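The protein record passed on for reference:
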Amino acid sequence: MKAIKINLLALLVAAGGVVKAQTIVVKPGELPVKEVAAQINAQKNVQILDARSNEEYVQHHIPGAVSADANAPGHEAIFNSLSKDEPTFIYAIGAARSTIVANELRKDGFKKVYVIAGGLSSWVGSGYPVTTTKQANALTKSQYAALSGSSPLVLIDFASRYCPTCKKLIPTLDSLKADKGFKPKIITIEEYDNPLLAHQIGIYVLPTLILYQNNKEVWRKSGLSSARQIADVVNSYTKPKLASTK
């Protein structure tokens, strides 16, 4: 497969798209994507490690990043080839796997180790460039609009088959699909196949649920939600509102 480097922000500006900002909580030992991008552009010897599996890395990754799965055989050789004095930035989908790698490097004497806050999801959502092999099969914005408007109520699940939290949400969504009283049509979109679309829609965290009513976004939530929480939100938009009495 041919790898293509795409600048998502440039493509979006050209298309006239609008992105909704989302706040990412930056924990100790992390740096926000904007600061990481600035340091990568300003410094010559920046080291970028991709803590996901090699299968994920091949599909798309930050330009210049090296595959460094801590569970893969021989990953120690990759770590040994790095300079302990140069800045080292680490990412995964979120922060779990990247934190494991960061802690291992710090124990080994690396002095400037930073986890990219929000991981690759935040990087992609913020419009920074990625090297990808998935661009040819991606949904366009118009195709997405057709999906979000394919029923009076549509619940979009932006997720990834590699995301542990996304997998935890699957039984919840399956139970809602089986519930005949649940009105929205549920559609899952694989973020790994649609990095540009994820940026255009403003997806910074996986999973993210978006509820559309008559093809208009009325609710959005990142992370886990229970079936009851989702149903309550849907009911707030579908139950007839009582007329006020004087």
Summary: Residues 1-21 have pLDDT under 50 and may be disordered.
